[in-house]
Amino acid sequence: MRNCNPLNIRYVKGNTWLGCMGSDGAFCKFITMKYGLRAAFKLLSIYQTKHGKLSIASIIKRWAPENENNTIHYIKRVCNYMGAKPNDVFLFGEVVDKEMCCKMVAAMALVENGEDRLTTQQIHEAWDFTFGEKGGRHD
Fold first, then answer.
1. What percent of the chain has pLDDT over 90?
2. Are 67 and 132 in contact (CB under 8 A)?
3. For the purposes of burial, counting CB atoms within 10 Å of the CB of 73, is it exposed (0-12), middle (13-18) or buried (19 or more)?
4. Residue 86, Cα to own-chain centre: how many angstroms?
5. Is the Cβ–Cβ distance between 19 and 31 less than 8 Å?
6. Taking a C-beta distance cutoff of 8 angstroms, is the pair 30, 36 a contact?
7. C-alpha distances in angstroms, 114 versus 18, 25, 118, 120?
8. CB 127 within 8 A of CB 102
C-alpha cells in the first residue's frame, strides 16, 4: 500500500507509467492510489495481450515467479478470494469481465500487502479510469 502501489510494481527506468513519480529504490511510487491501480490494470492487460498469459494461474506465475514466491499458494489465495479456478480467464479491459478483474486486483493486493485496505469503489473507479466505463483496451 505504500507508494500508492498496491501490487508492488517494480520500478524499471524507462517505463513511463502515468502518475509515477520515481521509485523508493525498488518499487514505483505513484501520486495517488488511482494511478497505482491503473498501472496494475494496464500491466495485467499487457500480460494478456502481449505475452499470452490469459488465465489467472498463468498471469500469477509471471507476476510472482516461483524463484521469488510461493506461486501455488498465491494462485490459491487469489482464486479463493475471487471464487474462481486457476484456469479461468477474465479479460482485462472487457466490460463483461470487469467485476472479476477488479476482484483479481483486490485479491493480488491482499496477497502482496497482507491486508485488505482497498475499497471496491476505489478499484472500480480505477478500472474505469484505465479502460473507460464501456471497457476497451486503450492508453
1. 84
2. no
3. exposed
4. 16
5. yes
6. yes
7. 26, 21, 12, 17
8. yes
Give me the residue label for grid cell 497482507.
114
d(CA 58, CA 42): 16
Which residue is it, cell 501520486? 31
Strand partners, 10: 27
Using a 10 angstrom Cβ sphere, with 0-12 exposed, 13-18 middle and 19 or more buried, the burial of residue 78 is buried
User: For the segment 31-70, what is each residue's pLDDT rounded down to a tens digit?
Assistant: 999 999 999 999 999 999 999 999 999 999 999 999 998 9
Q: Is 104 exposed, middle or buried (0-12, 13-18, 19+ CB in 10 A)?
A: buried
Helices of type H across 5-97: 33-51, 56-63, 71-82
Residue-wise pLDDT tens digits, 93-114 = 999 999 999 999 999 999 998 8
- φ/ψ of 87, rounded to 5, equals -90, 5
**pTM: predicted TM-score of the whole model, two decimal places:** 0.93
The CA-CA-CA angle for residues 22, 24, 25, to 5°, reads 100
Helices 33-51 & 120-131 angle (0-180, nearest 10): 60
